[in-house]
Amino acid sequence: MTAAALSANGSSPASTRGEVSIRDLSKSFRIAGRDFPVIRNLNVAIGAGESLVIVGASGSGKTTLLRILAGLETADAGDVRVSGRQVSGVGAERAMIFQEPRLLPWVNVLGNVAFGLELRQGARKVPRREAEAQARHYLSLVGLTDFADAFPRQLSGGMAQRVGIARALAVQPEILLLDEPFGALDAMTRITMQNELTRIWHEEQVTMVLVTHDLEEAVYLADRVLVLPKEKHRAPRLLDIDLPRPRDRSSPAFTRYREALLQEFGLH
Amino acid sequence: MSVQDVNSTVVALNGEEETGGQKPLQSLLEGAGRFLSRYGLLIGFLLLWHVASIQRWVNPSVFPPLDDIAAAFWRGMTQGSLLADLGISLQRSGIAFVAAVAVAVPLGLFMGQIRAVERALDPILQLFRQTSALALYPVFILLLGLGELSKVFVIFWATIFPLLLSTIGGVKEVDPKLVEMARVYGASRLQVFRRVVLPGALPSIFVGLRLSATMALLMLIASEMIGANQGLGFQVMNAQFNFQIPLMFSAIFLLAALGLAANYTIVLLQRRLCRWSNAPV
């Protein structure tokens, strides 16, 4: 299996919705008076509607990269653009799904899904009834129509995470950022959720950037896998997952991709 | 399991024992059983008091029989000054409590959110808090005179701190991950406050309200015992001084009822506003 070289990003001023371009991105953290680089000169282009999965050991900067895309962290150097617009600070067009569902415990499920829409003000303000209708639509997309009036503490971990996904989709984002979204779920629920996410991603045709440390999850969900090495002198690598969907986790080709990823970490 | 479920289980258990009984009688017995299991000890205590007084196991002039107290209560309310005392006491503690809420909740919400303000104000707050309000009462009397103002102020002073500290604590305990989530969805500072910080801090604010209500009544009685010529606290002291023991106990029971009523009102309000946090699944 050959890992594709990083595609040099051609400068196209007319970007389409959902396209991501990351150029010469660097970020380091200052810990105890010393600078620790976590991302060094990263260049990646993500196509509209693509599913990019980022894998890497802890400390490889995968979550930092996602937080920079979300606007929760600022890069030291480089240029990050989503749909052609430079990322500066948070924005509702980049919806983030966290490892924990992060639902508001005092609001019912429907209210949580509508949360992002209700925040809109001024010209973009959504009438309450419209926000609710849209929330109901996305709640049915994640299969939780019957739980609209439930409160978060009444939900299982998998259900709560579905609500989080519905909340993210309800704002109709240009790009979906997922930070180890199924890391806290049990193995069976995780597989169900991966299937669900594939279906939703296919239906919504949204660009998806997902961080995980689960290599099987990476092969199952990704169009391309970005491998971030922990040793900063090594260059990040991109691996195309050329498998038809829905993917068969037990097929030989699937296993070969998984082994190729293991090799990237020197674990094979 | 909800409270209702628990109750229905109790009913079911009682029902098994009363299989032979008719339906209305059965439900009556069940109701009586529930009532007794909750209030039986209280009733027993009052009964023991009454019997002990009549049988002269205790000195009846110190622990008068309950009917004497009830009679004194009725006389005090209809002919005496008890109703007026209740009114003035309610006014003093009420004004002080409302003022404390009006100051402590907004200030606490502000201090909890802005670290610099909290850091700057915390030492002086700790000093004020640890200085007993009763120790400061003579100072307040010097400054504000012996009238209503000094009494209301000393109650206000003691009431404000539990509420302020609970509110600050509540704001600081709001999950920063929820705040971050709201920011990712484009919430403004005000929206983060209104949608995340305020509801998140509400349970702690209610804890503070209950502590403060208790404190308000405590300080009310203390201030009325020290320098007043009306009010329930004054009546307790005055009746004791004149050896009108039934009247004294009437005032004491009235104060206890006041505390229970205040607490119950706040709990009811909390159940309505924070259903999500304490309602069983």
What's the structural domain tally of chain B? Answer: 2
Quaternary status: heterodimer
Average predicted confidence as pLDDT of chain A? 88
Largest sheet of chain B: none
CATH class of the domain at 1-84 and 175-182 and 207-268 in chain A: Alpha Beta
Global structural class of chain B: mainly alpha
Order of helices and strands of chain B: HHHHHHHHHHHH
Count of helix runs of chain B: 12
Q: Order of strands across the widest beta sheet of chain A? A: 6-7-8-3-9-10
Unreliable runs of chain A: 1-12
Structure description:
The complex is a heterodimer of chains A (268) and B (281). Chain A is of the alpha/beta class. Chain A has a domain at 1-84 and 175-182 and 207-268: 3-Layer(aba) Sandwich (Rossmann fold). Chain A has helices spanning 62-70, 109-118, 128-141, 157-170, 187-204, 215-221, 252-264, and strands at residues 20-31, 34-46, 51-56, 77-82, 85-86, 94-97, 175-179, 207-212, 224-228, 237-240. In chain A, the strands form two sheets. In chain A, strands 6-7-8-3-9-10 form a six-stranded mixed β-sheet, with helices on both faces. In chain A, a hairpin with a 2-residue loop joins strand 4 and strand 5 (85-86). Chain A starts with 19 loop residues before the first strand and ends with a helix. The relative contact order of chain A is 0.18. Chain B has two domains: 3-62, no CATH class; 74-278, Orthogonal Bundle (MetI-like fold), CATH 1.10.3720. Chains A and B meet through strand 6 of A and helix 8 and helix 9 of B.
